[in-house]
Amino acid sequence: MRTAIVSAMQEELAAVLALMPHEAKQVAAGREFWVGRLHGHEVVVVLSRIGKVAAATTAAVLVERFGIGEIVFTGVAGGLAPGVDVGHVVIADSFVQHDLDASPIFPRFEVPLYGTSTFACDRGLTRRLTAAVAAALPGVHVHRGLVASGDRFVATTAESGALRAALPDALAVEMEGAAFAQVCHDFGIPFAAVRTISDRADDMAHLDFATFIRDVASRHSAAIVRALLG
Ligand code: ADE
Question: Closest by alpha carbon to 201, among 163, 146, 169?
Answer without folding.
Answer: 163
